[in-house]
């Protein structure tokens, strides 16, 4: 995909019609748009998003998108049109996406919306034939997935979020989405839901009585499981987004000097809480495993004593174990001499007496079994004592962890109250508290939902067993049942393939990320996407080996995130050039707003030098201070086009009462 032109009409401060064309030259692939703060760079970035998906990243979302100047200059009751038109090339075709929203001018600066925004998509294919899409939203989503747009249209000052520990879910989803692995995800869901339901319905229609009722019950459980999976997916997504917001607030709190020490201490305590939770989970698992595998020992005390008493009685009576072994008597007779020195002649009374003892000795391995059983009884008693000791230790450890957690939570709450009382941090802390409440709610929902889903899955398995028994009783050869089972087996295989491919892509991307990262970073660090799909920075500490870099600057986070984006876009392009069965990839542009704001001069120069290599087309929006010097020197080498946003502020003493921005080709700094 290469963007050719963007035409904006009455969108935010862009009054009237403003059009911009972008460089599509492979050797001069960079288009730079200059604009000071407030000139409209963020509005321009959101114009792309609104045109393609009907959404924006403004704090007010899609409210107040219509130009105030357009409202003011419209005649009463007239129609005002706000629109964005995007023309781009993709896979040999030229597309024109047009979204518009109509309003009616009311009193003052009020404009009434006339329904929802409308999207249209037309294109000319590689043969020169014109088409109009009947499903424009779906077709655009196939070209540039909506849930992935944040990696192509992003605010450079916020992109650092990708380097947060809580961004692992986003990293995983980005890898799956951009590498085309979602096709496997959809196939698995389709097989487990729609296909299974179809075969259940088919089987029910050919059944009657109890078998039909069982199919009904199984279908109901399958529907419940599917609904709960969708709920869990939404809750987990919300939980992940809240985690990112909390981490961003923490970064901002870290920068407030008055509470820096308190914030640092709180984060340390929260890290301890996290470790306690992990230790508690591990100890609880160990306790449950211990009880499930060895719990029977607690209930066999009486039986152990009864058997032990019986064996002791046999021993006292001399029945077990035998005092003289049969083989010992045979050896004496063969030797011809007793242990007392008396000769043992064949057929003599002495020999007959010895042989008579053999008839009273137990054989057939009974004695050996007696000795083994005696040893087992002693072992079981020792194991029983060890079980109670282990349970006692686990309970004490869990109690100690709970006490420590309670104490730490109390101290964290105290620090929160202290931070809340500081003016500069009060609002941020209030938001943080609310977000943590919301996070707990989603976490609780996930826990309860997962438990319900597991119970329904167990019930569904039981119903399947009942169905199989019923089919066996009636001697029905149920083809639908066999097909359903085959569909589930295929779904499980796809799931395993999906996970294996995701991890392979993760490994390949990790190498790419680190390769770019080390070219930019001046410290002896390296970057990885770890097993949990978290983007991390590591360093070597003498005597301790590989250690994560926990305290990273905003600039370091931005560099890490940019390295990830460049790597995933590059990998998607490689897959597009050499598509596989599942991984299709794609060629994507990158549009970035203010990617240099938090970087020092050295990092600015290095980032600017590799930005042209990010994608086949790069559109960069910068302020004058970000452009001058290192960035200008590097980007000019691949510069195709540049524009300047001219902001016109309201003039109370003049005729102009409303702000607006127009666009001029070239750089007027």
TrEMBL record:
<dbReference type="InterPro" id="IPR027417">
    <property type="entry name" value="P-loop_NTPase"/>
</dbReference>
<dbReference type="GO" id="GO:0006302">
    <property type="term" value="P:double-strand break repair"/>
</dbReference>
<dbReference type="Pfam" id="PF13476">
    <property type="entry name" value="AAA_23"/>
</dbReference>
<feature type="coiled-coil region">
    <location>
        <begin position="398"/>
        <end position="489"/>
    </location>
</feature>
<dbReference type="InterPro" id="IPR038729">
    <property type="entry name" value="Rad50/SbcC_AAA"/>
</dbReference>
<feature type="coiled-coil region">
    <location>
        <begin position="211"/>
        <end position="282"/>
    </location>
</feature>
<protein>
    <submittedName>
        <fullName>DNA sulfur modification protein DndD</fullName>
    </submittedName>
</protein>
<dbReference type="GO" id="GO:0016887">
    <property type="term" value="F:ATP hydrolysis activity"/>
</dbReference>
<feature type="domain" description="Rad50/SbcC-type AAA">
    <location>
        <begin position="6"/>
        <end position="277"/>
    </location>
</feature>
<keyword id="KW-0175">Coiled coil</keyword>
